[in-house]
Amino acid sequence: MVWFKSMGEFDLIERCFVGKGGGPSPFTLLGIGDDASLHQLEAGMELVVSSDSSLAGVHWPVDLPLEIGADRAICSALSDLAAMGAEPLCCWLNVMAESSDAVVQMGAGATAALKRHGVELVGGDTTRALCNALSVTVAGKLPKATAMRRDQGLIDDKIWILGRVGFHRAGLQQWFDGQKEGCFMSDFHRIEPLLTAAVQLREQGVRCCMDVSDGLLQDAMHLASASSMGMEIELSLLPDWQQLVAELGEESAIHYAAYGGEDYALLFTAPASMYFDGAACIGHCSAEAGVRASLNHKTIEIEKAGYDHFK
Amino acid sequence: MVWFKSMGEFDLIERCFVGKGGGPSPFTLLGIGDDASLHQLEAGMELVVSSDSSLAGVHWPVDLPLEIGADRAICSALSDLAAMGAEPLCCWLNVMAESSDAVVQMGAGATAALKRHGVELVGGDTTRALCNALSVTVAGKLPKATAMRRDQGLIDDKIWILGRVGFHRAGLQQWFDGQKEGCFMSDFHRIEPLLTAAVQLREQGVRCCMDVSDGLLQDAMHLASASSMGMEIELSLLPDWQQLVAELGEESAIHYAAYGGEDYALLFTAPASMYFDGAACIGHCSAEAGVRASLNHKTIEIEKAGYDHFK
Predict the structure, then answer these.
(1) Which residue in B89, B87, B82, B305 sits closest to B209, CA to CA?
(2) Averaged pLDDT for residues B252-277
(3) Quick one: closest CA in B to A29, which residue?
(4) How many CB pairs under 8 A join A and B?
(5) What pLDDT was estimated at residue B12?
């Protein structure tokens, strides 16, 4: 960890990052300023950690303000904690930037998101690079043996989704089309990790969940595969499906809802006896491996999977 | 966390990363494959975490094989754990790569380093980028309230160093000069984080330590400042100083030892009553703020500090 040295880079760090996130939290004994941060975990709790990179031009369009890109980078990382049902604790942030201005902009976006979600910034570094990017590591906690995992789905479970899918992709298309006041723009600008709702799901007893970051059907395939089962999904049951069809037509609605990423809805399964207010039941788990999607009970051919960096 | 999806990127991840590091360790309950990893910490222990990025062309020359750059990235991160006296547990690795070949090469270097140090790879992601880079987050543990910190130095403590400084910088110069069989090449190629020695220092009772990554005098200034004291350092007492002078002449030896980075020696302070076999005592802590360096008791003017990304 190289934060807090002497000059330029370090004045910048002090100005942009130190004390700017949420917190402090009792989890952290020593934050920014040493070679590493120090933490304690209460008895009976497990630690949950996720780490991901977000790059301008890859995870968001290069003409999107860097503040927004950095806010999204933090929120997508926090969504991984939500997927497990964890309460977020802190963040280590590595900023790679073309210029000191880019550091300032990404710092502002990242720390605003951390503050909004009460997450302490405890370490990381800042590096000159050929591109603007953030690597975000987040930690959270949950009571022992209660994590919502991808491998805990059971045949005959119902499939639920909390949050909309396809709307981010629709907003991205509006952005590319120059419709920067378009009706989906807020879905594109802002990720809201469903942290509070996820903790409630875990407390209600949900044990199988993931966040939909790479497209509903690709992500469902990972969940189905991890749980050694199949999934049957009816697209017309998706939250606000009719709105998506009304705005985009059925073909684009199917495409965006099934394959569009970055919505960060929570996809979870639960026994048929359970009910979840505010979530939509979109299908059921089955014994036959794989994922099958239908629209108004007519099978949709699954044409392609989500985003792949090296295809 | 987006590891383990379906195709190209994910075959690559399976081939290059899954099960390739050290471990598994009892710290990890769930590793690669879900939205986040899950961990437990024994009672009486603290968690130590550091996160840093390493970029081709910034942290290592672009013509250095990516395997070596990635190995160095892991080892420099582990050195931050050594600086605190922590026993390493696991690593989350974000790989940004220009091509799938670059992923394979950085994966090989990173996992080799993790395996050599018995550190489990538990998460991260792989992203297409305009540059080759790694963001490395590492976690370790140590008994409560025993961490070696930068702010625990005391006036009249002796200053010690374990490991050599200036040798990496000398090797980098040989690399730039095309002397790729030069006598300093092994110091340039390979970082060896002093993990075992650091745990021994902590167990001996050392409470103030840092790793020298950005140049001896710049790093000493951070330690002195954190501990609200001054430091008096005699360069001729540095390990293998005579060898450095013999190979480079006095002027370059001073410059490389005082300001060259990336050596990852451990700089620590301790009461005068303590002695450390294998380490060199290079000075003492004083009441006057700042760092003063001498060579054969003649003051050296401190001309500049170490590397700064945004100056």
Answers:
(1) B82
(2) 95
(3) B46
(4) 254
(5) 78
Give the tens place of pLDDT for each residue, B116-170: 999 999 999 999 999 999 999 999 999 999 999 999 999 999 999 999 999 999 9
Q: Tell me: pLDDT of A1 over 70.
A: no
A53–B5 CB contact, under 8 Å: no
Chain B CB contacts of A50 under 8 Å are 1, 35-37, 92, 123
ipTM of the complex: 0.94
Which residues from chain A sit within 8 angstroms of residue B7, using beta carbons? Answer: 305, 308, 311
Q: Tokens 């760092």 label which residue? A: B291
For A92, the closest of B4, B49, B140 (CB atoms) is B49
Residues of A in contact with B8 (CB under 8 A): 308-311
Size (chain A), residues: 311
Least Cα separation, residue A246 to chain B (angstroms): 32
Domains of chain B in sequence order: 8-143 (3.30.1330.10), 150-300 (3.90.650.10)
Confidence (pLDDT) at B13: 79
Q: Bridge-partner residues for B54, per DSSP? A: B134
Q: Is the pLDDT of residue A214 over 70?
A: yes
Lowest mean pLDDT among A145-149, B107-111, B181-185: B181-185
Q: How far is A128 from chain B (nearest CA, A)?
A: 5
The answer to whether the CB atoms of B53 and A125 lie below 8 A apart is: yes
- Would you give the end-to-end CA distance of chain A in angstroms? 33
CB-CB neighbors (< 8 A) of A102 in chain B = none
Distance separating alpha carbons of residues B108 and B102, to the nearest angstrom: 10
DSSP state, residue B79: H
Average pLDDT, chain A: 92
Instruction: Please give the residue of chain B at the shortest CA–CA distance from A2.
Output: B52
Q: Which of A41, A51, A99 to mutate to test the interface with B (most CBs of B within 10 A)?
A: A51
Contact A46, B40 (CB under 8 A): yes
Structure token digits, residue B300: 């050296």
Backbone angles phi, psi at B239, to 5 degrees: -55, 130
Helix (H, G, I), strand (E, B) or coil at B217: helix
CA dihedral A138, A144, A148, A152 (to 10 degrees): 140
Q: List pLDDT tens digits, range B205-244.
A: 999 999 999 899 999 999 999 999 999 999 999 999 999 9
In tens, the pLDDT along B43-62 reads 999 999 999 999 999 999 99
- The three-state DSSP-derived secondary structure of chain A is CCCCCCCHHHHHHHHHCCCCCCCCCCCEEECECECCEEECCCCCEEEEEEEEEEEECCCECCCCCHHHHHHHHHHHHHHHHHHHCCEEEEEEEEEEECCHHHHHHHHHHHHHHHHHCCCEEEEEEEEECCCCEEEEEEEEEEECCCCCCHHHCCCCCEEEEECCCCHHHHHHHHHHCCCCCCCCHHHHHCCCCCHHHHHHHHHHCCCEEEEECCCHHHHHHHHHHHCCCEEEEEHHHCCCHHHHHHHHCHHHHHHHHHHCCCCCEEEEEECCCCCCCCCEEEEEEECCCEEEEEECCEEECCCCCCCCCCC
Asked if A50 and B30 come within 8 Å (Cβ–Cβ), the reply is no
